[in-house]
Prior knowledge:
By secondary structure, the chain is mainly α.
Amino acid sequence: MANTQERSSWTDRIPAWVLSPWFFAVLAIALYVNTTANQFALDDGLVLNENKYVAKGIPGISDILMHDSFHGCIGNSAYLSGGRYRPLSLVTYAIEVSLFGMEPWVHHLGNVLLFAVCCIVLFRFLRRFVLPDHPWAAWSVALLFTVHPVHTEAIANIKGRDEILSLIFLLLTLHHALAHVQWRRLQADGQPESRTKRKQREKAGKNDEGKWSGAWSAVFFALALLSKENGLIFIAVLPLTLYCLGGLTLPDAVRRSAPVLGLVVLYVALRMILLGARNNTVQEVMDNPYLFATAQEKIGSILFVLLLYVKLMFWPHPLVYDYSFNQIPLHGLGDPFVILSACLHIALLVVAVMGSRRRDLLTWCILFYLGTLFLVSNLAFNIGAPLGERFLFQASVPFLIGVVEMVRRIMVRGSTSRSLAMLSAACLLLITAGSAFAVVQRNSEWSNGDDLFLHDVAKSPMSVRTRTFAGIALIHKSDAAGPEEKRGLAWEAVEHLRVADSIHSTYLPTLLNMGMAYYRLDSLEAAEHCWDRSREIDANDPKLKELERFLFDLYYKGGLTAGTKGDYPEAIRQLSKAVKYAPDNADAWYNLGGVLYTTKDLDGARTAWERALELKPDHLQTKQGMFALRAAEQRTN
């Protein structure tokens, strides 16, 4: 008793504002406010600054609601499997664009403020329904969530707003569903009630979180689905929550969750109407990580990735924007880490099953965590990446609750001395300080796309994407550099792109940009070789077509200049290149034929001019050339 009183007197000295939800909002803003100095980076272009619908502002909202979230940037793409219908975050961007313009700091600030709201919602949910009798445990979970460095991608990358909005609305879905259960229980309870209980009932009856909470839960779930597909797993999570935290029987929990199933059906139908029922089989390993894996390799690699997620939750270092091919090689079922992961996750499932009858909080945490990761595991469908730090944004909630709850139980079973409490507080403070430092530092690494690419390539050296994007960043920097530095940066770009090419030789962005780097080194022949390889992969790629127009213009003008100077062999070489890149240009064929005619290559001239007349039958100069050609052939005969 003395120890309890001693600990209570110690906690009573904690300022009241520390225990307020606003503490976490202020902390979140303080940690992420430096992102407002950042520019656009990584995938921001897909949904914001390069998205034509968002760029329209509020007038573009109708297009946003009617199309795939990436359609405004890339249109229909065979590399997108199943489509992405996440209009809510794009609608918020469009509103910001109308009000403030395409200013990066505005959109970054929006993410920061929404994350602050998320932390408030989480703490209120924890205090009321998850850990109502353990305020310090709830406080610790909210603190660890707020400062966890693995969340930096979701907040520092503006595109991550879909993750933030989704989690806010999913937490509100659970909060109001449980509030409605609580209200109904108080209304149905016919037992004699105390004054306190009566006040609770009356408050619940008057409060929106009581009588109308069921409707609000459905509204928030619909908004969650429109934010991101993460909410689909709530078909299982909501009844699980009502069973474990709401005290309902399992049949009642499933019945009360029926509106969620109805909303999911409506959402899926809406997706099919707007996006179609497509489910493209992506034939590029960069966007389909297990394309070439055997069934055993796929399962083994997914188990390995699940172990990496656990590692990132406990030790979020290093943090990398990309883990795609071939940063995480394929793993067989016999790999020791795969076996360790299988044992760990089987043990978690056993714990969940054993605790299910007594509605153990750990059962809820484990099944919520594993269910969330199932959606992004590539088991059910291809998500385009083997691993992503953003995928832990939602999953971290049950994970952190479970870890804190386990520590709390250990402390309860062990000593309750003040020294143990102080030791726990010291550890929490140390974790918080280290995490806060890592968050602020990582935010600065997201300052802009090029800096992020060059920083992270050292941490993900076997990723084709990080190597390619590092090369692109160096090309950009070489364009802005002075003459002496320019070549060095271009050569460095070539080196990164060569490594990417050695890992995956048919990745179009690697080849296209390697050609650009060689061009900056005045190695046009090497550049053309890269672009010829690109043409074998996808001759209709828009960027390749743009390069072909550039090369045509270069060689056409060069050929005309050489011909004017009387250097006919060079004129023939360059004009032959010109018609290669623009085979439908009648003028180019005419001029090539003219030079060939001048050098007495009458057969070559005839072929070139016949092609010109096929393209443009009324081409007067070509007709004159053909008349001269026939006269020359008659004189020869």
